[in-house]
Amino acid sequence: MCILTRQTDSDNQQSPPQQFNLPDARIRFWPNWLDEALAQQLLEQLQQQLNWQQERIMMFGKPVPIPRRQVWMGDAHCVYTYSGSRFVPQPWQPRLQQLAAQLSEFLQQPFNCVLLNLYADGQQHMGWHADNEPELGHDPVIASLSLGASRRFDLKHRRQDWQLQLALGSGSLLVMDNGCQQHWLHRLPKQTKVNNARLNLTFRYIAAPS
Ligand SMILES: O=C(O)CCC(=O)C(=O)O
Ligand SMILES: [Fe+2]
Q1: Which residues does the annotation place in the binding site for 2-oxoglutarate?
Q2: What's the CA gap between 195 and 168, in Å, rounded?
Q3: Whether residue 202 has its Cβ less than 6 Å from ligand 1
Q4: How far is Cα 50 from Cα 38, in angstroms, rounded to an integer?
Q5: 53 CA to middle of ligand 1, Å?
Q6: Which CATH superfamily is 17-204 part of?
Q7: Does pTM top 0.80 for this prediction?
Q8: Distance, CA 118 to ligand 1 centroid (Å)?
Q9: CA-to-CA separations, 44 to 40, 49, 50, 68, in angstroms, rounded
Q10: Which of 105, 160, 180, 191 could bridge 122 with an S-S bond, Cβ 3.0-4.6 Å?
Q11: Pair 184, 25: CB distance under 8 Å
Q12: Are 142 and 131 in contact (CB under 8 A)?
């Protein structure tokens, strides 16, 4: 097993990313893509303004609330099926549409929808999964922006004994592509000592029906 950890440093959007060429995948990481004050301001604004939902998923035949709150937002055709439920997007909040456009320009990659996850504290989490729903296409590019409390993010190869752990601090941007969803899984583990909220935004692209 190989566990690699990177700590954040003072890079910004002008700096080249930290790049991890993993077996069967690529991860790029900008520790300070947004500066600290802007990240904090955006966190507070989105926490207050958005219509946060605690979705329920079916587990062993019973509806169970997921351990975080979510918003699904994007272009009207971006209907998304996740853990057996169908999500119709909320219309764009202007600041988020602007961020999607900024990321599209920055990464030279279209984004037309975003899943927002709000973790009230370190008890809230997300289990092992891949963002490999068919709507996202064959090899999706997922751009993950984090605001608020720093949390650990784990990746593991599906078939080989490889793991990667990253600390995702406020304002950091993580980009997963080149096989990451096909060959790896990721999760946000519980961290019971974390008392503050974290908001994560994963920008995605869903092709319009032809
Ligand atoms: O909160 C995170 O960093 C992970 C979010 C995630 O994996 C997802 O939205 O699919
Ligand atoms: Fe994910």
Answers
A1: 117, 119, 129, 186, 198, 202, 204
A2: 15
A3: yes
A4: 18
A5: 16
A6: Alpha-ketoglutarate-dependent dioxygenase AlkB-like (2.60.120.590)
A7: yes
A8: 10
A9: 6, 9, 10, 17
A10: 191
A11: yes
A12: yes
